[in-house]
């Protein structure tokens, strides 16, 4: 499955270069994953399991800058590579149609003691 | 009592005008209150009471801009005005000696149901 | 005139209390003002005038917490009180219909030397 | 050369899990690079060259969580791999002595038209 989410670059997200700061790209990618979990109704499942999804590895390529009010779309494709849940994410500028960034985010489910756990069957719709 | 804390303006805190964004001043003021509670060893007291300190009213005056690497000091004076805990805060640019901002932050302790509670005797050192 | 803008509370905007951090409210209010200027086609006017709109005073009342994925609407009403441009802003939670915050933001146009300037006639549509 | 910078985890940097949000690690790494340039007196050199240092690729490994008031140190080692300026960065929790994160940040100097430029001789102290 591929999940899609849209964002508009905000005034307070610009840095002293006048474009969206590079750490903000990570915010957009993170929010797209939250929305994927919401849309698949998996947020409650995870909460009730007592597990936490933690990010262990992030690789982002920055291809183009994002300017004030640019409309962007983040496409997210989750993939299971035990014990990891990996998210391949692409960000496109809808105004220009051009790719602005790509990311690979590796996550793992941990318990209260921060020990990695298997991905529950209830999350199998994800991949 | 007056509590003092120091910060350095960071590159990613600058906005497209090349100075520290106005929302970041609120971050500095908030962090100064966290450090005040830590230094008075009251963080644990609050955690254990099951209460939360929530901000109900913020008034900030912006007097001067803050630039990259400016050293600033936040002076915080807590004051009890039942049922509120009010923090008078001043921010000074240590490089120039000039005042850059003043804030009055009104907070209240609430329980799990978000109902305001009296300020416990154990926090009396605050004011 | 009253300008309206909508936002959705994001996962990375939550603080350790599990609700939207109080500094983030200031981000929403700021972005609503950026969108007002965009929608009135005044961003370019201001850029070309060589002036900057700076915030000199912020007063926010926090009435209710905002939680993950809450939909909020910010209503902004600009008003001229020479030499200030004042924005009265209200934030409503569209899920509950309840008011969550109110703000009064006082701004002034300054030139390159940070000296306050009169509000140009070209911005008169604002008020 | 290796440059070292210290930070303290702040209250507003915590997310709903109660630890420092993963995007904030990127802020710490970025600020360490700003301080490196300041300490080498290269910020002015870059400004005057009319060039911008832009991030093109970020790889971060998250090894441990960071909690409120943890003291961390970022060690930064710049390296020239034409046309890139690459920063190898490590983050250590000074309270525990343990490594919390590692990052490789690939940057390039671009001109006003966003075209990559050679690294000027004046920046040669960096590597």
Describe this structure in words.
- 4 copies of one chain form a homotetramer.
- Chain A has 127 residues and is α+β, with helices and mostly antiparallel strands.
- Chain A has one domain (3-120): Thiol Ester Dehydrase, Chain A, CATH 3.10.129.10.
- In chain A, 20% of the residues lie in helices and 39% in strands.
- Chain A has helices at residues 22-39, 43-49, and strands at 3-8, 52-62, 71-81, 84-93, 99-110.
- The first copy, chain A, has a 5-stranded antiparallel β-sheet, covered by helices on one side.
- The radius of gyration of chain A is 16 Å and the shape is elongated.
- The termini of chain A are close together.
- The mean pLDDT of chain A is 92.
- Chains in contact: A-B, A-C, A-D, B-C, B-D, C-D.
- Strand 2 of chain B pairs antiparallel with strand 2 of chain C, so a sheet runs across the interface.
